[in-house]
Amino acid sequence: MSTRRGTWVAPRLAPGGLPMDVTMCTRALNTARSLLPFDIGARTFERVLNSHFDHKMYGLKPAHHAINQQPFVNDVLPSRILTGTVQIRGNVSRLGPDYAEFRDGSRVVIDDVIVATGYSKHYPFLPPEVAPYVLDDRVELYKFIFPVGDPSVAFVGLVEPIGGFWPVAEMQARYVARVLSGKLQLPDVERQRKEAARRASALAIDSARYAAQVHWIAYMDELASILGVKPNLSRLAITDPVLYKRCVFGPCLPYQFRLEGPHSWEGAREAVLDFPKRVASVLTPHTAPEETSLRRATAGAIDIAATCTVMILIAYVLSLAI
């Protein structure tokens, strides 16, 4: 396997066997990441990933930090490297009739080449003034949705979220619906252009591949605040502590954005609280959810998320005292 930059690899499963999203994609950790100095948050996340295997020893550690890029989610790659089934190589310098030559001068006889480079952001069927374009590895779209100065067309799903994709696409669709229905007005062109430039300058990796990268919880909260559907956590802490704990320390489920505001859903609270039952009904259909260990695993995952957040804050305080 040839890799130019290397990559951070994240496992699918968290402690207790639940998806890693349950412990890592929480409001608590997202808030800690945004408040703490970049180096502390980056090193903490990288220690979590390196606890599964040492990325440097396996030849995969990239130059950029883990929180700057969507990690490669895979459970089998480390074991494949360990057994020799997969060999990590650097960048390819050239291809021959039956071999690949790498920048270090080594050659490997090959049968096939699988180019896993993703997709380019080009829309040849749209006029140039409308299509989102990549210029110097930047995408000029307001909120990564509307071409600057043109609200007649919108792009839903063009973002590269560090987190779940479909919740982000749904939030974008809700934003677009409000604009196209005339219930929400976009700011003036100059403000749109400045915000697009600000987002572009904040990118940690200069690459067209990451030109539309966002941290998904922060990005959804940004759109939700404009739409009036962001959950009021301060109020929930007083009026509904159980729901507050699940919203802050549990996985950031998209049902949170149906708790209040336009197009709210009366079943949203139950959907947030009862997601362990729905997972259990798939994993253990022959057993009642109350009889499974999934609820305990979920509670443990939430406790882990809370503990990690507290530990990060303590590390920050100690770093200030040194």
From TrEMBL:
Its EC number is 1.-.-.-. The chain crosses the membrane at residues 299-321. Keywords: FAD, Flavoprotein, Membrane, Monooxygenase, NADP, Oxidoreductase, Transmembrane, Transmembrane helix. One of its GO terms (molecular function) is NADP binding. InterPro entries: FAD/NAD-bd_sf, Flavin_mOase, Flavin_mOase-like, FMO-like. Its cofactor is FAD. The keyword Cell wall biogenesis/degradation does not apply. It comes from the Eukaryota. Pfam families: FMO-like. Belongs to the FMO family. This is Flavin-containing monooxygenase. It comes from Rhipicephalus microplus (Cattle tick). The lineage of its organism: Eukaryota, Metazoa, Ecdysozoa, Arthropoda, Chelicerata.
